[in-house]
Amino acid sequence: MRHALVRGVSPAMNRCELTHRVREAIDIKRAEGQHRAYVAALVDLGCRVHEIPADPNLPDSVFVEDTAVVVGDAAVITWPGAASRRPEIESVRAFLSDRLEVLRMEPPATLDGGDVLRVGRMLYVGASGRTNAEGIAQLRALVTPRGYGVVPVVVTGCLHLKSAVTEVADGVLLANRNYLDVDAFVGVEWIDVDPREPDAANGLQVGDEVLFPTAYPRTAERLRRLGTRVHAVDVSELAKAEGAVTCCSLIWDTAGS
Ligand code: CIR
Fold it and tell me: Does residue 20 have a pLDDT over 90?
């Protein structure tokens, strides 16, 4: 069984953190509609969706990906790099603790789940504005005994590692390689975003399909030509908060159907 944890859009989303984007007014109703369609797409792709209610005090809480990293049957609860986002972790921890073994990181470590790209048993971890060396070291100490490797990757020019690269098929990475130290990656195949769509590297692989923003039709076409099944979703309003498709869910598998 494949599970997806999501969280509703906060009515306070206009007070979200922004790093590489200029602030634009977010239409909350429209963002909620896009989020509902995103959830429906996850259901279409076979996920059992669990939803934590929106929190009116936590502007960025729809972006649940940043609060935890799932490795097998355990979840590492992160310590997000932006202080405003740290109160998000408690409700995610409480929800996951009934379903997965919960592991904790401690400050001064900081790490956002958006910086962790799992490829097989390897976790590539962005050394970004949100994730520090101590965060990478603590994650390594927690996951190494579970058989996962950790490779730090320097990220520049975008928020998270997964703003720059995501996996779209086993071992196949969609990337804007200008944002990344590509030499950190071993034994992967690359698909480059269309150069007119520099922010198009964030797709969410669910089974053999990829949820992908409608905002990037040229890159979507590239993916289709290479045999990827693309499931397009409009996340334009969520993108104004610097989020994309991976960040709105935490996905894990359990045995059985
Ligand atoms: C932030 O800056 O933390 C939010 N406004 C956006 C987080 C997006 N998260 C992600 O891509 N994993």
Answer: yes
* C-beta 79 within 6 A of ligand 1: no
Of ligand 1's listed atoms, the one at least distance from the Cα of 114 is 12
Does pLDDT of 257 surpass 80? no
- Cα–Cα distance measured from residue 110 to residue 58, given in angstroms and rounded to the nearest whole number: 18
Q: Is the CB of residue 92 less than 8 Å from the CB of residue 64?
A: yes
Task: Spell 120-138 as b/e; 16+ CB within 10 A means b.
Answer: eebbbbbbbbbbbebbbeb
Tell me the two tokens of residue 193. 């975003």
CATH classification number, 2-253, choose in 3.10.50.40, 3.75.10.10, 3.40.640.10, 3.40.50.880: 3.75.10.10
Q: What is the pTM of this model?
A: 0.97
